[in-house]
Design goal:
This protein has 225 residues and is of the alpha/beta class. The protein has 9 helices and 8 strands.
């Protein structure tokens, strides 16, 4: 099993359904690194916003206040993925389709992104900069100085098929399609995830299986490690 010594930050960007989460967990496990799913932090905040009865479109300032004050705790051990906000375990709730439908309204508030990016960077530092970080804007905003920076993309039809497999037989296909298309559209207003920034490696996973994608990312770490 490949392992790295010393500092190693692996930043993985990409749209919904591109395989970021599965790839990141496996890379972290193989390299003996921590793992941070930054999307889970936005989802946790969306859960807290909903619990507080806040309408993000009408009350963005209340969302910003909550983002600044909320106690968000994420387990960075690969495969654990526990998320707690203000003492409430929302690990299961953040994967609920209703949360998926709400998260963009929270995540596209610019000041919310600023506040959560600060927290993400703190988590990277607390893990001694030995971590795989995945989400939006990771290679350009959160960890622009990461040793390995990857933009993971895939054909939209493939992304929807993957998401359907994750959600199981009960998934509403129309709802899932709308969520992925809408997430792409909404997130594009605050982040860039289709064209790699300078120094970022593009990996198109459309015709690759998970092991092949993971192998490519691990190979990149070996080149710089």
């Amino acid at each position: 099993m490949a392992r790295v010594n010393g500092e190693m930050v692996v930043a993985i960007d990409g749209p919904s359904g591109s395989g970021k989460s599965s790839t990141s967990r496996m890379v972290a496990t193989r390299l003996g690194l921590a793992h941070l799913d930054t999307g889970s932090m936005y989802r946790a905040l969306a859960c807290a916003v909903s619990r507080a009865g806040i309408n993000p479109q009408d009350e963005p300032d209340r969302v910003i206040d909550l983002a600044g004050s909320a106690d968000i705790r994420v387990d960075t051990r690969p495969g654990y993925d526990t998320v707690v906000i203000n003492g409430v375990d929302v690990t299961e709730e953040i994967r609920d389709p209703r949360t998926s439908a709400r998260v963009s309204a929270v995540a596209t508030i610019p000041q919310v992104r600023v506040l959560l990016v600060e927290r993400m960077r703190d988590i990277v530092e607390r893990n001694d900069r030995r971590i795989v970080v995945e989400g939006r804007d990771i290679t350009t905003v959160v960890c622009p100085d990461a040793q390995v920076r990857v933009l993971l993309v895939a054909d939209p039809a493939v992304r929807m098929a993957r998401r359907a497999r994750e959600l199981g037989d009960d998934v509403d296909q129309t709802q899932m399609h709308d969520q992925i298309v809408r997430r792409d559209r909404d997130d594009a207003t605050v982040s860039q995830f289709e064209t790699p920034a300078p120094g970022v490696t593009l990996i198109d996973s459309t015709s690759l299986d998970l092991d092949e994608v993971v192998a490519r990312v691990v190979a990149l770490t070996e080149q710089v490690g």
